[in-house]
Amino acid sequence: MVKTSRLPGFHKLTLKERLAKVAELAGLSEEDVKTLTKEGPLPLDIADKMIENVIGTMPLPLGIATNFLINGKDYLVPMAIEEPSVVAAASNAAKMCRAGGGIRSLATEPLMISQIQLVNVPSPHTAKYVILERKKEIIDLANSTNPILLKVGGGVRDVEVRILDSPVGPMVVTHLIVDVRDAMGANTVNTMAEAVAPLLEKWTGGKAYLRIISNLADRRLVRAWARVPKDVLGGEDVVDGIVYAWAFAAADPYRAATHNKGIMNGVIAVALATGQDTRALEAGAHAYAARNGRYEPLSVWEKDKNGDLVGYLEMPMAVGTIGGAVRVHPVAKIALKILGIKTAKELAEVMGAVGLAQNLAALRALATEGIQKGHMKLHARQLAITAGAKGDEVDEVVKEMLKRGEIRLDVAKEILETIRSKK
After folding, report:
1. 210 by DSSP, 3-state: which?
2. SS (HEC) of 60-90
3. C-alpha dist (Å) from residue 9 to 6, 17, 21, 27, 218
4. Known catalytic residue: 83?
5. Neighbour tally for 107: CB within 10 Å
6. SS3 102
7. Does 261 participate in catalysis according to the annotation?
8. Given 175, 259, 286, 375, the catalytic residue
9. Burial code of 252-271, b = ≥16 C-beta within 10 A, e = fewer?
10. Which of 25, 219, 386, 410 has its CA 20 to 30 A from that of 19?
11. In what order do the strands lie in the sheet with 169-179?
12. Catalytic site includes residue 375
């Protein structure tokens, strides 16, 4: 346990000084310190400028999912994730989808919503009328905050007003609907909301509090579709099993949560690799899954008249290829280069396709041999490494654990000891 977390002026220290202080308080060894400061693809001086109170970096494995054919184009898909089997599963599912012509994916226009909250409005319905009547003035003012966005074809597309009943009384909430082009858009729409808020206060007599983006990006969707031949999946019984697995999620929010987690395994792995706001993506996806008043799966799986499997995914996808970590993090820049992507729209389409493929892989595994068979084989490698196995020892330990059918750390340690005692 640390002695204290009250560290006045901690943010003013250099990275080296901050690390020394944490090492002292948390009892870190010299080896721990070396691990934290070991230079990798993300240089410490850049990391120190990306967030606050930096003491090091934490790398994740970066893998490449293969076999993806999306909208008739081949992609190598970078995925950053710590969970075994995800990259392999995505690659395998993409291969199955490829047999049916690949995955079709379409992203809508990049429209983001910024909310301006007004409280203590004397006449909410009159306020709504006044705000909408002056829509052009609002749009002109908001657009004036970002002439570059306007120049590339973006800007405010519409203004909407909602009257909400809340636990503390009625609120008048104005939405700015903004085309943010190739940006994720948070900074852009927040700046616009802050510029417009004083005008709304003046016109309505209300008080503006929150002026912030909504991460329920339901105007910025991606829709992905694929047909998978039954023979590729293992027959019509497997198709039926996948449809039953989806129907379970459609009927039960407890299952739907895990169903959607499988989709996000793929989406977030690509998001991490390309420097996206993963928290915004998660929030938007799960809010969208509950848009009908109950939590539901983001995908639908059906059997067509030929007995083949058809899958459809629809979800918010607020991603960018400019701004944020995308153009700062060296690995994110390389990941976009591997993808060969220039626009946010194309990135959204790829991520939607990966989400659909990841979902297919999970459902097929669940409907056939169960999720653990493939997962535990890869998990065994992590256990072998944790036990201290090096080089060829890793494969030897894994092979023996699988042979025994015992995938546990204590077993890995025992096998490793036996292997070393024979050398």
Report:
1. strand
2. CCEEEEEEEEECCEEEEEEEECCCCCHHHHH
3. 10, 11, 12, 21, 42
4. yes
5. 22
6. coil
7. yes
8. 375
9. bbebbeebbbbbbbbbbbbb
10. 386
11. 155-166, 169-179, 111-119, 207-214
12. yes
Structure tokens that stand for 126 in this block: 């009159």
Angle between helices 344-367 and 86-98 (to 10 degrees): 100
Cβ proximity of 399 and 377 under 8 Å? no
Q: Which of 182, 277, 346, 349 is catalytic?
A: 277
Tell me how far apart the alpha carbons of residues 273 and 288 are, in angstroms, rounded to a whole number: 24
Q: Of 83, 158, 160, 194, which residue is the catalytic one?
A: 83
Tokens 């340690």 locate to: 413
pLDDT in tens, 105-126: 999 999 999 999 999 999 999 9
pLDDT along the chain (423 residues), means of 10: 87 95 94 92 92 94 97 97 93 97 98 98 97 98 97 98 97 98 97 98 98 98 98 96 98 98 98 97 98 98 98 98 90 96 96 98 88 67 89 90 88 91 83
Nearest to 90 by CA among 274, 364, 294, 422: 364
Which domains are delineated in the chain? 1-59 (no CATH), 62-107+222-369 (3.90.770.10), 111-214 (3.30.70.420), 374-421 (1.10.8)
Tokens of 22: 């944490």
Q: Give the angle 31-33-39 at the CA atoms, nearest 5°.
A: 105
Residues in CB range of 101: below 8 A, 6 or more apart: 69, 227
Handedness of CA 297, 298, 304, 307 (dihedral sign): negative
Q: What backbone torsions phi and psi does residue 94 show, to the nearest 5 degrees? A: -60, -35
Is residue 357 within 8 Å of residue 266, measured between CB atoms? Answer: yes
3 state DSSP class of 105: strand
Catalytic-residue membership of 236: no
Which pLDDT value is given to residue 227?
Answer: 98
Q: Sheet of 73-80: strands edge to edge?
A: 73-80, 62-70, 103-107, 221-228, 309-316, 299-303
**pLDDT at res. 236:** 95
CA torsion sign, 273 to 274 to 277 to 281?
negative
